[in-house]
Protein: Aminoacyl-tRNA synthetase class Ia domain-containing protein
Amino acid sequence: PKREPEIQAKWEEMNIYEKVQERTKGRPMFVLHDGPPYANGDIHIGHALNKILKDFIVRSKSMTGYNAPYVPGWDTHGLPIEQALTNKGVKRK
Structure:
């Protein structure tokens, strides 16, 4: 863990992610949308397992020749949808 920041900095300096994306350009696409972080409830080991499994799948697809970019998800839809329903007069139960 002590060396992780050093290793990450080196990977960023070497543009590793960009090189992988360039290498797989034009290959069959595989996208696994990673959902937004959980906002309700305490974090637990299941959250870590979820992220680890998704990381494993995306990396293995990339290593087997797919163009598999990492696509994190963000909760950008909840509030606009709620506001649209409020504007239409829909009330919460």
The chain is about 50% helix and 5% strand. The chain has a mean pLDDT of 88. The helical segments are 4-13, 16-23, 45-63, 78-87.
